[in-house]
Write a structure and sequence with these properties.
Elements lengths: L5 H21 L10 E3 L5 E3 H17 L4 E4 L11 E9 L1 H5 L6 E8 L2 E9 L4 E6 L3 E6 L5 E2 L12 E3 L4 H6 L2 H10 L2 E3 L3 H9 L5 E4 L4 H13 L3 E3 L12 E4 L1 H11 L7
Parallel strand pairs: 3-4, 10-11, 10-12
Antiparallel strand pairs: 1-2, 4-5, 5-6, 6-7, 7-8, 8-9, 12-14, 13-14
Length: about 270
C-alpha cells in the first residue's frame, strides 16, 4: 500500500487516537476494586473493563467508518463491505491487568484485503505506545514526546540478547516445554515480560526476540505490522507470515531463523 494513500492515513491517525482513548478508559478500573473477574470457557479471565473498552472502540469505528468490518476478542464479528477490517484486543494481558501489573496493552489493527496494514500497541499504565502503518515505519512515543522511529535490535544470535515469552504454562499446554528450555539455554537471558509488551520491546530494540506458543489473531494482527515496519519479521512457528496459526515469533531476520530451526519440528498438540 502506498504511504500517501489517504484511506490508509485516515485510518492510521484514527487508530492511534482511539487506541490511546481506549487505553485511558482501562485506567478507570486498573488497580481499583471496580470490576468483577469471570472466566471464559478456556479458563482465561475477562473483566467488565475488557468489554467496556471494546464497546468504546467499536462505537468510535462505526461512527467514522461504518462500512468497515470489525473483529474483536469480546464480541461477535461485524462484517463489512469495504476492503478494511479492524481487529481489536481491548486488554491484551488481562492476567497482568487483574494483578495490577502495568504491562498490559490495548491493541488496534487494521487489515486491507486480509493483510495487516496498521497496528497500534498502546501500554496505558506506562503511557507508552508503538505504532506502524505499511510503508510508514514504526514509531515509539512515551507520554507526549515527539514520535521516534524505531528498529529491531541487530543482534545476530540469541546469545546476544534478551528472549521473551508470555508464560511457561502455555509451553506446557502446547507440549513444548523442552522447546522452551532449548531456546532459553541458547539465549543470553530470558524473561516473561510478555503479551504485547514483549513485542513492543522487540520493536524498539530492547529485546531480541519474543515467542508465543499460543495466541489468537487479535493478539497478533497489530503486532505483525509493527514488527515488520521496525525491520523485523513476524511469523508462525513454521516461518509463515500469518496471524492465524495460533503461535508466533517476532525478531530480526537472523535470530528468527535460529528460532525457527528449533520450532519448525514442533507439532501442535493443543
Amino acid at each position: 500500500m502506498h504511504p500517501d494513500d489517504p484511506q490508509l492515513n485516515q485510518r492510521f491517525q484514527s487508530a492511534i487516537r482511539w487506541a490511546r482513548q481506549a487505553g485511558a478508559h482501562t485506567l478507570n478500573h486498573f488497580q481499583r476494586d471496580t470490576y468483577q473477574i469471570s472466566r471464559k470457557a478456556d479458563g482465561s479471565p475477562v473483566t467488565q473493563a475488557d468489554r467496556e473498552t471494546e464497546e468504546l472502540l467499536r462505537e468510535l469505528i462505526i461512527a467514522q467508518f461504518p462500512d468497515d468490518g470489525i473483529i474483536g476478542e469480546e464480541f461477535p464479528e461485524r462484517p463489512g463491505t469495504t476492503s478494511y477490517r479492524w481487529i481489536l484486543d481491548p486488554i491484551d494481558g488481562t492476567k497482568s491487568f487483574i494483578s495490577g501489573v502495568p504491562l498490559y496493552g490495548t491493541l488496534v489493527a487494521v487489515q486491507s484485503d486480509q493483510r495487516s496494514v496498521i497496528g497500534v500497541l498502546e501500554i496505558p499504565a506506562l503511557d507508552e505506545r508503538v505504532y506502524a502503518a505499511a510503508g510508514l515505519g514504526a514509531w515509539h512515543v512515551r507520554h507526549d514526546s515527539t514520535p521516534r522511529r524505531v528498529h529491531v535490535a541487530d543482534g545476530s544470535e540469541l546469545s546476544n540478547g534478551l528472549l521473551l515469552t508470555s508464560d511457561f504454562q502455555g509451553w506446557v499446554k502446547r507440549g513444548a516445554g523442552s522447546t522452551w528450555q532449548q531456546l532459553d539455554a541458547a539465549s543470553w537471558f530470558a524473561r516473561t515480560w510478555g503479551d504485547c509488551y514483549g513485542y513492543l520491546l522487540v520493536a524498539t530494540g530492547r529485546a531480541l526476540a519474543m515467542i508465543d506458543p499460543q495466541l489468537n489473531i487479535w493478539d497478533a494482527a497489530a503486532v505483525q505490522i509493527v514488527i515488520q515496519e521496525a525491520g523485523g519479521r513476524f511469523t508462525d512457528w513454521q516461518g509463515r507470515e500469518r496471524i492465524d496459526s495460533g503461535d508466533a515469533i517476532g525478531a530480526n531476520s537472523l535470530v528468527i531463523e535460529e528460532i525457527l530451526a528449533v520450532t519448525r519440528g514442533v507439532r501442535r498438540e493443543a
